[in-house]
Amino acid sequence: MKKRLSIILAVLLVVVSLCATLIGCTPSKPDAYMNKWKDSENKSFTIVTELDYVLKKVDKVEKEENGKKVYEYVHNNGDIICDENGEPKKFAGRTTTEHTFIKNGDSYLYKIVQIINEKDKDGKDAKTDEIKPTRAYIYEHNKEGLYNVYEYNLKWEANDEKKIYGEQGYWTAFKMEKAALESEEMYNFIMEAFENVTEKVTETAQDFNEKFTKTKGKFNATDEESNTYTYQVKSSELLYSKTDKDGKVKENMRYELNEKFTISSGAKEALNAYNETFDGTFVRKEDVKGKAVYYISVDGKEYKVNEKTIGYKLLENAKENEIVSVRLHKGFFGGLSITEVYGIKVA
After folding, report:
1. How many CB atoms lie within 10 A of CB 337?
2. Could you say which of 107, 109, 168, 276 is the most buried, measured as most Cβ atoms within 10 Å of its Cβ?
3. What pTM does this model have?
């Protein structure tokens, strides 16, 4: 019985020890959190902005056919719906935009997410928010010493067969050397954002005790213009806000320790497509049972392109020796084949 009790006590001590360790990982005081955050290799910060209205993009126009009203889906270059004065029309609701920056060692992610809640005709909030990632950039330091660069953007599409009308998200990817990366505008924007926020966090932590007082679990400070600055550690995050004398939120941020991002399957597939993209030479066209079959040479080997290949129609007017960009993919049973034609390169 004593032996059994000793085992139970030992297990309990291990559990208590682990809990204490986990609690200790997240400082409970904002200045301690800031100091740990600035020195961490895995961290993030998110800038949050809110609008008390919703903007919409033009995606369809009403017209009349045979005396009936019908809709034609269009994309006017992403134009915002405007009123009769040409000003953006504000619909009742709320738009929250989150700009998130994540650092994992030498790898970085920046993403923009919109959270939209449009009120219904009775002025009530929608039961669920529309969460829409609008853009993302990832710079992943790989084992080759290069950087895998992933970009996510929205593209407007209309597909009558699938009844798809609107913006769809797509990943593209490529590789870059560090020297070339340092001249990239978006990469430098992310580096500058981390540098500025780290500098601000460091300055705030230095004289935090002199400027901030604790009230109901939150630490507050007020400046000469009656702006109130608030910090609070909650659920492993450090929350920050700045409100003016009228109580309106002017700045809103949150910080996270030990946050790591993952590369989505869509981004990985885009990198696979990049790795499998080659320049080939258009060789000839043959007629097989009334169907055109094209032949493209890549590194001295000929490959067939038939109607089942994506981008097949791009080769209708191809000429001999023209350079064609293709995806050369290894099949399930081995062997390479052209699975997509991207286009003819103009010299």
Report:
1. 14
2. 109
3. 0.83
